[in-house]
């Protein structure tokens, strides 16, 4: 699946998107965050406060307990500041 | 009936309003809200608005659908800009039309409250002295503003 990052999550990770292939035990959005954190310091920095991070699956807001099975695109970003 | 546009270019609020009223006589109320880029400490050169292409349109579209289900609206237009925006320039436009004013007022406020917390946009400051500014932080007050609408969250 594709992972996409926005705002300071993107800056901290140092990329806008990437293809990720998490193992089967990574079931939820929260699991995926935990799995990404293991990949390196830049991920640990981006997700240092996981509760702050918002997520979307296929361009719809989801909570961290949402399953990622079948997702084409998972997005991670800070709380939104538009308007 | 709802129009949602995400664009880099500026917009003309008067032209958008005309588009919702032209050729029809059933509109009794128009509410127009324009949000501007604001400089509080005379230190800002611009705000840079990043957005999630695709989701920005879709999410605002979902909020517009909710507003249409809740109030008897005759028309809705939401425009949101992205890119670098200088203090004093337009950022966002919401126009609602209805037969009577209450629906238009309430729906416009509902749309702005939801847009601020659910539309995937992020503001970064650019300072006049050329230094890197901070990402604007989300305000608790914006989350609290949703409470009066009985917020259904994702």
Question: How does the SSE layout of this entry go?
Answer:
The complex is a heterodimer of chains A (83) and B (154).
Chain A: E1 2-5, H1 7-13, E2 17-19, H2 29-37, H3 41-46, E3 54-57, E4 60-62, E5 73-77
Parallel strand pairs in A: 1-5
Antiparallel strand pairs in A: 1-2, 3-4, 3-5
Chain B: E1 2-7, H1 13-21, E2 29-36, E3 44-51, H2 55-70, E4 73-81, E5 83-85, E6 90-98, H3 101-118, E7 121-127, E8 132-135, H4 140-145
Write a short abstract of this structure:
The complex is a heterodimer of chains A (83) and B (154). Chain A is α+β, with helices and mostly antiparallel strands.
Describe this structure in words.
The complex is a heterodimer of chains A (83) and B (154). Chain A is α+β, with helices and mostly antiparallel strands and 83 residues long. Helices cover 27% and strands 23% of the residues of chain A. A five-stranded mixed beta sheet of chain A has the order 2-1-5-3-4. Chain A is globular. The model of chain A has no long low-confidence stretch (mean pLDDT 97). Helix content of chain B is 32%, strand content 35%. In chain B, helix 2 (55-70) packs antiparallel against helix 3 (101-118). The mean pLDDT of chain B is 94. Chain A binds chain B through residues 4, 6-8, 56, 59-63, 75, 77-83, and chain B through 35, 49-52, 54-56, 58-59, 80, 91-92, 112, 115-124, 135-138, 142, 153-154.
Order of helices and strands of chain A: EHEHHEEE
So what's the CATH class of chain B? Answer: Alpha Beta
Shape of chain B: globular
Number of strands of chain B: 8
Average of per-residue pLDDT values of chain B? 94
By secondary-structure content and strand pairing, the structural class of chain B works out as alpha+beta
From the N-terminal CA to the C-terminal CA of chain A, the straight-line distance is 30 Å
Parts with pLDDT < 50 across at least 5 consecutive residues of chain B: none
Give the fraction of residues assigned to helices of chain A. Answer: 25-40%
Q: What about the largest sheet of chain B?
A: 4 strands, mixed
């Amino acid at each position: 699946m594709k992972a996409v990052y926005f705002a300071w999550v993107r800056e901290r990770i140092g990329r806008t998107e990437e293809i990720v292939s998490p193992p089967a035990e990574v079931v939820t959005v929260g699991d995926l965050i935990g799995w990404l954190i293991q990949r390196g310091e830049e991920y640990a920095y981006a997700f240092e406060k996981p509760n702050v991070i918002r997520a979307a699956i296929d361009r719809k807001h989801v909570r961290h307990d949402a399953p990622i099975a079948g997702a084409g695109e998972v997005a991670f970003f800070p709380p939104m500041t538009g308007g | 009936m709802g129009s949602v546009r995400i664009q880099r270019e500026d917009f003309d609020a008067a032209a958008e309003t005309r588009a919702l009223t032209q050729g029809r006589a059933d509109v009794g109320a128009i509410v127009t809200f324009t949000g501007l880029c604001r400089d509080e400490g005379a230190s800002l050169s611009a705000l840079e608005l990043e957005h999630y292409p695709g989701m920005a349109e879709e999410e605002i579209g979902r909020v517009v659908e909710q507003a249409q289900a809740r109030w008897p609206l005759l028309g809705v237009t939401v425009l949101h800009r992205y890119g670098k925006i200088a203090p004093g320039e337009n950022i966002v436009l919401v126009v609602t039309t209805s037969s009577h004013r209450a629906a238009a007022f309430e729906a416009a406020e509902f749309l702005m409250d939801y847009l601020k917390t659910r539309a995937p946009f992020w503001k970064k400051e650019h300072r006049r002295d050329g230094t890197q500014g901070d990402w604007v932080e989300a305000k608790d007050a914006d989350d609290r503003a949703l409470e009066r609408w009985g917020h259904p969250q994702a």
